[in-house]
Amino acid sequence: MRLFRWETLKVLRDWKVRILLAALILFVATYSTLYQNRSVELPIEETRAQYTDTQDLFRAIPQEHFETETGQDIYDRLARQQSILGMQRYILSEKEGNTVEGLEEIVSDYVDQGIEMAENQLYFHAADDFESQELLLTFMPSEIEINNRLKFLNYLKENDVAIDWNPMSPSLVLYTLVNIIAGVFIYIIAAIFGADRFSRDQENNWSITQGLPYTWKFQWRQRTFISWVLIWMTLIIGILISYFVSRLSTDTGTLMYPVQLYDGESAVYISILQYVVMTLLLAMALSYVIIKLSTGLSWVFRNIYLTITIVVAIFFIPYIFTIISPLGSWNPFLYIQLLPMLEGEWADIGNVNIVKMLIAIALFYILIEILFHFIFKLIPTRTGRLERRKN
User: Fold this and answer.
1) Is 101 helix (H, G, I), strand (E, B) or coil?
2) pLDDT at 391 over 90
3) Are 140 and 124 spatial neighbours (Cβ–Cβ below 8 Å)?
4) Which of 32, 65, 229, 299 lies at a CB distance of 3.0 to 4.6 Å from 246, suitable for a disulfide?
5) How far apart are CA 280 and CA 285, in angstroms?
């Protein structure tokens, strides 16, 4: 414990580390403020566009196509859809939740209306005997999108959550921030923290870093853990500050609001709170392996830029599988990136899921341990070469 405390203080006394940690917390903590300056499309604007599309659809379809039994049914459903969109537009403009107080009987409930509209859209996809079905479907979402929309609306109904009219609500900003951290961002931070200090200590403190009284592997693991703790303490504090600062300026939204997550080949909806906790835990596990690799490579190459380049380049390995086949969902390199798995980019491959990702992370951890078990049998000399340690 005394050695751990001494090593931690030694790392923190480095002015570069302090600057990196300060920059990290400054960026994460102020993210919600920066996000407010973005230009985003409000849900009410999307609803207006859908309302206009429905009007155009009535004009585009020949009137004689509505004269059959199926055509009349579709006409009635389209008219109902336009009515629903008009009421939803009003509900969103009032910013009171799923309905408007005092007008519940007139404007009804946003979620119930959305479910009815989605069911009508599925009916349009099934109406093969309608002469203008192809034209009709060009104005409609795909069946997969409609079914996902139904899952979203059913989640709102079952959990009594109101539709969020504000895409910049604190909970949705938190969701965006966590996705940024779980992407290439964590690779860059892990690479920077691991790429310099460990190798520099071996060069500058040659006389006390030869594995006595502690082995190379012990020093490597300890430095990895220290870097990992410092990074995630800073990130978590920054995330909390960002969220609460956002809450001061906007009081809409809830952490129970649903977001999409792919469970294998199909989408499910979970609360933002569940998503944030799960994503951060997975990112923490993955980042530990990245820092471990970066710290070890810094000792091998003694070049901070080369180490950072190699570690960040690893992040882009999964893009190879957009060109060649990954040969199944058990390919561990599919799980080097976290977000494509959660967002369903690998859904066509098969059952790509969280359990397999945890197994992949464990495999990478074991592989790195085995690799550096042999590397640490060679130690650096004053000239920067590698030679076998003499016991």
Assistant:
1) coil
2) no
3) yes
4) 32
5) 9
The string of DSSP codes covering 5-45 is HHHHHHHHTSHHHHHHHHHHHHHHHTHHHHHTTS----HHH
Query: What is the model's pLDDT at position 249?
Result: 78
d(CA 94, CA 101): 10
Beta strands in 149-288 (DSSP E): 258-263, 266-271
What span, in angstroms and rounded, lies between the C-alpha atoms of 103 and 83?
15
| Long-range pairs of 277-285 with CB within 8 A, sequence gap ≥ 24 | 278/354, 279/178, 279/179, 279/182, 279/338, 279/342, 280/178, 280/181, 280/182, 280/236, 282/182, 282/338, 282/354, 282/357, 282/358, 283/181, 283/182, 283/186, 283/338, 284/228, 284/232, 285/358, 285/361
pLDDT, mean of residues 155-160: 92
| 292 vs 331, more confident | 292
pLDDT tens per residue across span 336-369 = 989 888 888 877 777 788 888 899 999 999 999 9
What phi, psi does 247 have (nearest 5°)? -65, -30
**Predicted TM-score of the model (pTM):** 0.88
- Beta bridge partners, 388, equal 378
Query: By the 8 A CB rule, do 25 and 239 touch?
Result: no
Q: Is 91 exposed, middle or buried (0-12, 13-18, 19+ CB in 10 A)?
A: buried
**DSSP-derived 3-state class of residue 355:** helix
**Domain edges within the chain:** 2-38+167-388, 43-158
